[in-house]
Amino acid sequence: MQCARLVKQALTVGTILLISPLSFQTDTAMELLIALCLGIGLSAACGFRVFIPPLALSVAALHGTVDLGADWQWLGTPLAATILTVATVVEVGAYYVPWLSNALDGVEVFAAPIAATFLTASTLSIAGDLDPVATWVVAAIAGGGTAEVVEGASALTRLFASSVSAGMGGPVVSFVEMVAATVLSLLAIALPLLAFAIAVFLLLYCGRRLWRLWQHKKKSPSP
User: Are 126 and 38 contacting, i.e. CB atoms less than 8 angstroms apart?
Assistant: First the structure.
């Protein structure tokens, strides 16, 4: 609980640092809110699949649906979209191979929060020139933290499903995760506020599951 309070305080401070220069610019403040909701929605999707959310944002930027800042224009290029498409196909397919799925879980526990941090930083650029330090603080806590919690819970769910079904449940969970990542990514771009609400729900639900698991392990006697 103390950790949760510290994260909440850090996120509040970072958000204040971003918003304070924009206090009297209602339109810009609203753009910042939408950009942050977009980033957090995509970050939650990263917890299910790392490359689907960046691909969705890349395609949206390529077609002008999302107008990223100057430093992130490269994400909306045909080359970036092509590379992310290949990476997405490889990632999605790998989760249907049992031993690759286990290996990916070990990699994506680090890759998901990193990708989410960069995604959130890129979406915050929509609001214009913001303080770089505050931008990355908020991106790391809000984006990276959200992706890490969702990724941890989804990996445990997949592991549990595989263990109780002799490996048959893993592909089913992988398919559901792929759909969830795709739908949440599209919602984040089309309806950022709704995606943010879903992300908050996922964060609370997954965080609670991880907390209960940690408490259970803590109470279990050591061998």
Answer: yes
pLDDT at 151: 87
What is this structure's pTM? 0.81
Residues of the chain predicted below pLDDT 50: 1-3, 6-7, 9-11, 13, 16-24, 222-223
How would DSSP label each residue in the chain?
-HHHHHHHHHHHHHHHHHHGGGTT-HHHHHHHHHHHHHHHHHHHHHTT-SSHHHHHHHHHHHTTSS---GGGGGGGSHHHHHHHHHHHHHHHHHTTSHHHHHHHHHHHHHHHHHHHHHHHHHHHGGG-S--HHHHHHHIIIIIIHHHHHHHHHHHHHHHHHHHHTTTSHHHHHHHHHHHHHHHHHHHHHH-HHHHHHHHHHHHHHHHHHHHHHHHHHHHSPP-
The whole-number pLDDT of residue 7 equals 46
Planar angle of CA 124, 128, 131, nearest 5 degrees: 70
- pLDDT of 26 reads 56
